[in-house]
Specification:
2 strands, globular, 1% strand, two-stranded antiparallel sheet, mainly alpha, single chain
């Protein structure tokens, strides 16, 4: 919501007609969200930092402490065998899809509940298994069976969930997180580069589109400055339309947020369940005040979600909580790395590693949640995080008293 609105405003180009009279309220909301986010991040998270530090110090000073988790080479080998057999079978039946999701072909783009389960849980599950195996090998787990598993999983990922095979957002969440966790020590040593990766990750979507078009025979075409006039960057404009809607109709008193949190409830049980806030504003405000709508992907930035639900008070409170959560996760991630450096621990022998994987996955997801809408964001987050936890549980084990890790 930073660079794109400046470019759009300077050129006077918006996706739909836009009431510029709302600029003052929009600027005020953006300022308040920033102030309360920084306050939550720097002040409230300090208390959490003390608690986290004391917990790690207790582990470091405990002579009875035993590392609880390690990656199980036998389990991941079995996982890799199942993965490669399933992948080869699917490709032999439905063909190889390097620049699109093979799951969309299988289900004929039906977007049914089964399709969404496979797309947002099963495919990420395969990727997380590959990620655990890759990081273990990078960390020095040189058991031949692990290297064979990595080879099989690499082929499965290439066939089923390659870097161009699916929604750009999902691919970004997965590959960005893997890149961060593998090179985390080098990135932490260069914080400016670490922070800039999220910003440049935005342009990864354009690069993915260029490569897809080239592979499909359409040539290499860069949209240039027009990239910022597309629907990917409608967040500031949608915030303006949200302000206009609230001015005419009042806030929803949490109804839109409730619909996002309860996204998993079928409409057969809750017929009046709210739609995503982006679509809600599009059909309830934009279509009646400005333009006729086609099939579009409408965003709803987190500021807009907070404002349409609870007004300016909601913007302050929600960003206060988001700031505290981000501060906690940042501190936990850095403390985990300091703890590993202190104990000379490694990925497959440190019980805190799950916190690292959660953190790097949330980094990519956070961009999507900021763009919105929350209903889509929560559903993606639920699927990916469930896949991460499930992969962790089935591929990690507890060392027995007589068994030590083989390197």
């Amino acid at each position: 919501m930073g660079v794109a609105p400046i470019i759009q405003a300077s050129a006077g180009i918006w996706i739909f007609d836009f009431d510029t009279k709302n600029f003052f309220v929009m600027s005020l909301l953006t300022l308040f969200s920033y102030i309360f986010f920084i306050f939550g991040y720097t002040v409230l998270s300090k208390k959490l930092k003390k608690k986290l530090k004391s917990g790690f110090l207790a582990l470091e000073n405990s002579p009875a402490y035993k590392k609880k988790f390690y990656i199980d080479g036998n389990r991941i080998f079995l996982f890799s065998i199942l993965a490669i057999c399933s992948s080869v079978m699917l490709v032999s039946i439905y063909g190889f899809h390097f620049s699109s999701s093979i799951i969309s072909t299988i289900f004929n783009n039906s977007y049914s509940s089964t399709y969404q389960l496979v797309e947002y849980f099963v495919r990420p599950l395969l990727f997380f298994g590959f990620s655990f195996c890759l990081y273990a090998v990078f960390g020095g787990y040189n058991r031949p069976l692990m290297k064979l598993s990595l080879l099989l999983l690499s082929l499965s990922v290439f066939l089923i969930i390659g870097p161009l095979s699916g929604a750009r957002s999902i691919i970004f969440f997965l590959y960005f997180g893997l890149f961060i966790i593998i090179f985390r020590k080098a990135l932490i040593s260069h914080p400016m580069f670490f922070g800039s990766l999220l910003f440049f990750g935005v342009f990864g979507s354009e690069l993915q589109s260029v490569l897809r078009n080239a592979l499909s025979g359409g040539g290499i075409i860069f949209t240039g400055i027009n990239y910022f006039y597309q629907g990917h960057f409608d967040g500031f404009e949608m915030l303006g339309h949200t302000v206009g809607y609230v001015k005419e109709n009042d806030i929803t008193f949490g109804l839109q947020l409730l619909g996002a949190v309860l996204f998993w409830v079928p409409r057969a049980i809750w017929p009046d369940k709210p739609i995503g806030s982006g679509d809600f504003i599009a059909y309830e405000y934009i279509s009646s005040n400005f333009s006729l709508l086609g099939n579009s992907n409408f965003s709803m930035p987190m500021i807009g979600e907070a404002y349409i639900n609870f007004g300016i008070v909601g913007v302050c409170l929600i960003f206060l909580l988001v700031g505290a959560l981000c501060g906690r996760e940042d501190m936990r991630f850095h403390l985990i790395n300091r703890y590993e450096a202190f104990t000379k621990g490694s990925y497959f022998s440190n019980e805190a590693s799950m916190g690292m994987w959660r953190y790097v996955m949330f980094l990519g997801m956070f961009l999507f949640l900021l763009r919105g809408d929350l209903m889509s964001g929560f559903s993606f987050l639920f699927g990916l995080y469930t896949a991460l936890i499930f992969a962790w549980m089935i591929l990690h084990g507890h060392p027995s008293k007589k068994k030590t890790l083989q390197k």
